[in-house]
Amino acid sequence: MTPEVAVTGVGLVTPAGIGAAATWDRVYAGDPTAALDPLLAGNPVDMSCRVPCFVEVGVLTRRKARRLDRFVQFAVVAAEEALLDAKLCPSRWNGARVAVVLGTADGGPGTVESQHQVMLNDSPEMVSPLLVPMQLPNMLAGNLSMELGAIGPSFVVATACASGATAIGLAKDLLALGRCDIVVTGGSEAMITPLVMAGFAQMGALSRRTDDPRSASRPFDADRDGFVASEGAGILVLERPEDARARGARIHGYVSGVGASADAHHITAPDPSGRGFEAAVRSALADAGVQPDEIEHVNAHGTSTPLNDLTEARVLKRVLGDRPVVTSTKGVTGHMFGAAGAVEAALTVLALEKGQIPPTANLTRLDPEVELNIAAAPVQRRTELALSTSLGFGGQNAAVVLRAA
């Protein structure tokens, strides 16, 4: 067991809204965000979940935005909200004791694709000198560290769709080891580009329900046929509980336990036995010092793909039974890849704080092989302990146990 840490700030930029309050309202209402995407016109699948009306706000000035890829822009805005929520001001803290630990799966493919077109249509001499620093995955933490004056540990982790959750786990460990006093952590992603989406379509991973995009992402439903690509960022501010209390901070909840594992099975498909994912869940429970029957709510990875949902459901039933209320918020938000675990951990904290459990949107006919208590409608229930799960390509898994304040 390692000591639990306090969540003192939450910031969200998602297709459900810019800001934690706007995102929560739409997620709790079960209002799907998927729509046809003009930027994907001509692709085999031309729908996605885009962040709506995203413009330069707050610290993200227009001049600054031009120098940052979209995946970094999301994180800057989400981090600003999280720090305001935590009542922390970078100009007043000891930056040497502040860490930045973030997750992303792909970095800045949008910058790469746009600049590749410049090279093809014009010439190599016209390619932007900012191409490399804009698209590198590590620049997610690099730029945020510069923005915040945080000169403590700064790094990016990439465990595909588990990246955001993995980052939260590493952030908890840094605090436990005394390497820092504050960690700005989470994940950000902006992968909805024609090339990347063509690749996912060719894999057969995307839903083809383009005649009705809003119903396309349907986790655990018998008629699910793939995920809907999404984008966004989730940022949490983590501190040791005693430090948070000493400065009078509001504590939203606690990260009590984390677990990680690898399937060592296949580059994209989950191990049908679920042994790797199960190891991550059990490790998170052990780290939190809680028993499986104490978990009351699960924000599942639930991507809406046939294999993932069934494998995950079997493991959750095997480990937790059918007592917890299970939801997948991807029915509303779509799949945010490397940001998913962070956004969903944030939503789980909010669920604990508000005494509400969001629904699994578009669940009209539960897969008969999914033997779980899946919430198809919003649930008013105060819960003490919850689990947020993430599974990534390469068989990389992460699980986070969260406790109510």
- Tally the beta strands: 16
Catalogue the unreliable spans: none
How confident overall, as mean pLDDT? 96
Order of helices and strands: EEHEEHHEHHHEHEHEHEHEHEHHEEEEE
Helix proportion of residues, in percent?
25-40%
Report on this structure.
The protein has 405 residues and is of the alpha/beta class. It has 2 domains: 5-246, 3-Layer(aba) Sandwich (Peroxisomal Thiolase, Chain A, domain 1); 255-404, Peroxisomal Thiolase, Chain A, domain 1. It has 13 helices and 16 strands. The protein has helices spanning 20-29, 62-65, 70-86, 109-121, 131-135, 139-148, 163-176, 194-203, 241-246, 275-288, 306-320, 330-333, 340-354, and strands spanning 5-14, 17-18, 35-36, 47-48, 98-103, 154-157, 182-189, 232-239, 253-262, 297-299, 325-327, 356-357, 373-374, 379-380, 385-392, 396-404. Strands 1, 2, 5, 6, 7, 8, 9, 10, 11, 13, 15 and 16 form a 12-stranded mixed sheet that branches. A two-stranded antiparallel sheet has the order 3-4. A two-stranded antiparallel sheet has the order 12-14. Helix 11 (306-320) links the parallel strand 10 (297-299) and strand 11. Helix 3 (70-86) packs across helix 6 (139-148), helix 7 (163-176) crosses helix 13 and helix 10 crosses helix 11 (306-320). The protein starts with a strand and ends with a strand.
